[in-house]
Amino acid sequence: GKENVDSRHNRGRGGETTRFHTVNVAQPVRFSRKCPTGWHHYEGTASCYRVYLNGENYWDAVQTCQRVNGSLATFTADQELRFILAQEWDLEEKTFVRKDQRRFWVGYQYVITNRNHSLEGHWEVAFKGSSEVFLPPDPIFGTAMSEKENVLCAQLQCFHFPTLRHHGLHSWYAENCYEKSSFLCKRSQTCVDIKDNIVDEGYYFTPKGNDPCLSCTCHNGEPEMCVAALCERPQGCQQYRKDPKECCRFTCLDP
């Protein structure tokens, strides 16, 4: 909307003075924030993604993702995987692998069916979800494998160097599930209000943006049925500033 109430004097027919008041002219609204702080949004799947650097074994990583209403990431298409590989994940020095290579637990497991001459098996989705999830190619087997384990867990390796990252180079590892590693969580996009709080389905909220007087309903992670309040300018104040996060709250800047 328009920042201030404008009073403009235009000369009309017959020398009359015509006065116009413009109050909060409606503008198209764009909502760019559909994920909580620290998460990356991908429009193709309407999902949010976050790498957790605190090294955890596979089962603890599963629980951490569940606590934030997500799960270890699985992928539905090559485009989604390319999006993940292209991101800079704000990684710190304390990661658990070489600085130029990053490995994350993701939501697949490798089930071993034959140990005779070579390891044979197949990938499965660790937690049943969408039937559209694709399965990784044959893995590289990790060094921490146990001969007693018949189920290994998936690590996606991506590269830190920008040229390798943007070419989508990556590897899949089948690793001992009790090894500690960073991990990648995925959750559905959500409604995030102007104060960065997550909003539940069906509730009213003010979306992130430039209009603190907008009230919308959260539906499938999107603000819908939005209504805007109009504010009178503060009385007896010539210069003022609007509060960017509170509707109809002003600070008078007059001496």
Topology overview:
Elements: E1 6-11, E2 17-22, E3 40-42, E4 47-56, H1 58-67, E5 71-72, H2 78-86, E6 101-114, E7 120-125, E8 140-141, E9 151-159, H3 162-166, E10 170-175, E11 181-188, E12 191-192, E13 198-199, E14 204-205, E15 214-219, E16 222-228, E17 240-242, E18 250-252
Parallel strand pairs: 6-11, 8-10
Antiparallel strand pairs: 1-2, 3-4, 4-11, 5-11, 6-7, 6-9, 9-10, 12-13, 14-15, 15-16, 17-18
Describe the structure in your own words.
The chain has 2 domains: 40-91 and 99-188, Mannose-Binding Protein A, subunit A (Mannose-Binding Protein A, Chain A), CATH 3.10.100; 191-252, no CATH class. Helices cover 9% and strands 38% of the residues. The protein has helices at residues 58-67, 78-86, 162-166, and strands at residues 6-11, 17-22, 40-42, 47-56, 71-72, 101-114, 120-125, 140-141, 151-159, 170-175, 181-188, 191-192, 198-199, 204-205, 214-219, 222-228, 240-242, 250-252. Strands 3, 4, 5, 6, 7, 8, 9, 10 and 11 form a 9-stranded mixed β-sheet that branches. A hairpin with a 5-residue loop joins strand 6 and strand 7. The chain is elongated. The chain starts with 5 loop residues before the first strand and ends with a strand.
Query: Could you say which overall geometry the principal axes of the C-alpha atoms support?
Result: elongated
Number of DSSP strand runs: 18
Average pLDDT rating: 77
CATH topology of the largest domain: Mannose-Binding Protein A, Chain A
Radius of gyration: 26 Å
Written as H for each helix and E for each strand, in order along the chain, the element string is EEEEHEHEEEEHEEEEEEEEE
CATH class of the largest domain: Alpha Beta
Share in helix: under 10%
Terminal Cα span: 27 Å
